[in-house]
């Protein structure tokens, strides 16, 4: 058993990470899987970003996708034991909180048509976005193609299969809207009105 106190250390570089912002913190046992992925600004961490122990970033494992990308914004925190798939693209905004053991997937397997064996079917990719100020509770799972709206909350243990409206609170499997955050109840109405104006 080991005892860990406080934040991961500030670092200047980390194997597999292409760009680090100022005062970025990454635990020494974080892993980056980049099988066959070209060099470039594909894994970028913003200033004051903090990545805790046993987190895994995946840009490529058994396949290569030209849209592979992981960006973590300024002051965002990724807690212990997260799995962050960037094969289809993963953009995490500023001041995002990601709880322990969250899994975010941007790749999967084709399940309709094709071969009866999923193993033989093509891989699928869809970008995931987590907008500024969102909070994803511990153990949540985010599926490919989802956008987690600005300032929204995903309850612990939820499975998110659809976009999450800004400032909303969602939970369950599949996640559904529970309510709007207090003080932001009219955010959806304003957005729909602006979209209606064109």
TrEMBL record:
Q: Does the keyword Glycoprotein apply?
A: no
**MF term (GO), any:** acyltransferase activity
* Top-rank taxon: Bacteria
* PANTHER family, per database record: LIPOPOLYSACCHARIDE BIOSYNTHESIS O-ACETYL TRANSFERASE WBBJ-RELATED, SIALIC ACID SYNTHASE-RELATED
CDD domains per record: LbH_MAT_like
Q: What is this protein called?
A: Uncharacterized protein
> Which controlled-vocabulary keywords does the entry list?
Acyltransferase, Repeat, Transferase
Keyword hit for Acyltransferase: yes
Q: What Pfam families is this protein classified in?
A: Hexapep
